[in-house]
Amino acid sequence: MNGKELQGAIADLARMRGWRCAHFSPGRVGPKDSWITNYAYDSKGFPDLLLLRDRIIGIEVKGDGDKMKQEQHDWKDAFLAAGLEFYIATPKDWLEGSLDGILK
User: Fold this and answer.
1) How far is CA 74 from CA 38, 40, 69, 99, in A?
2) CA–CA gap between residue 87 and residue 76 (Å, rounded)
3) 39-65: per-residue pLDDT in tens?
4) Average pLDDT of the chain?
5) Residue 62: CB partners within 8 Å, gap ≥ 6?
6) Could you give the C-alpha distances from 72 to 28, 29, 38, 61, in angstroms and in order?
7) What CATH number is attached to the domain comprising 54?
């Protein structure tokens, strides 16, 4: 399971359980169809998914072999310092059911 597939599965499950779910996708720009994510200020490294229901959760999705970048660690630390939940989701987490428990 790659990161994109995992992200879709998490978003589908979250939405079935009544979560509001946000993801900001990159878009194609320029004559060579480059991919960029339009961001400003401190938003570089923002979590892949932001979920809101009875609480706020940030989720950084990592496929097998993917690693967190410093900007992603910075966002994780900011979420936790603000008393919010933050998870790094991997295919292993999905298969073991831990994400299912988080989203109940």
Assistant:
1) 19, 16, 9, 22
2) 8
3) 667 888 999 999 999 999 999 999 988
4) 91
5) 3, 68, 88, 89, 90
6) 23, 24, 16, 11
7) 3.40.1350.10
Which band of pLDDT confidence, cut at 50, 70 and 90, is reported for residue 37? Answer: low
Task: Using alpha carbons, select from 15, 7, 21 the residue that is nearest to residue 57.
Answer: 21
Question: Which token pair is 92?
Answer: 């292993």
Residue 16 CB partners (closer than 8 Å, separation 6+):
none
Which structural domain, as residue segments, surrounds residue 35? 3-102
Q: What would the pLDDT profile of 8-28 be if each residue is shown by its tens digit?
A: 999 999 999 999 999 987 666
Structural domain count of the chain: 1
